[in-house]
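Box 3.1 A note on notation
Throughout this textbook, protein chains are presented in two layers. The first layer is the amino acid sequence; the second is a token string describing backbone geometry. Keep the layers aligned when reading.
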Amino acid sequence: MEIIPKRDLLKDRYGNFYRVSYASKKSLTIVNAAMYHAFNQTLDEELVAKVKAKYPNDVACGKYFADLVHEQVEQMSTAEHAGTIYDIEDVKKEYDLHMKPLYDDSFHL
């Protein structure tokens, strides 16, 4: 099992997806995939325009980022997009997982 950071996803038993932000030989740092997207986009007029173009009605900020994950999952099921979705329990058998806390002052991806 070779997991590639910023490409592959992990999925837990609750249906949550995690993005690997860093990988070493036997260790992975992971973060909730929607949070990964949220912390890598600046809240500016360009983002507001993207959200307004995508949704006909007002939506919560989190919906946009969760939908980005959903779109990534759909794209990964096609042959032209690289990436694999791994079961997090299987990954735990081969890697030490370090989950990045959401409320950490040093939340840098």
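The longest strand covers residues 17-23. The chain has a mean pLDDT of 88.
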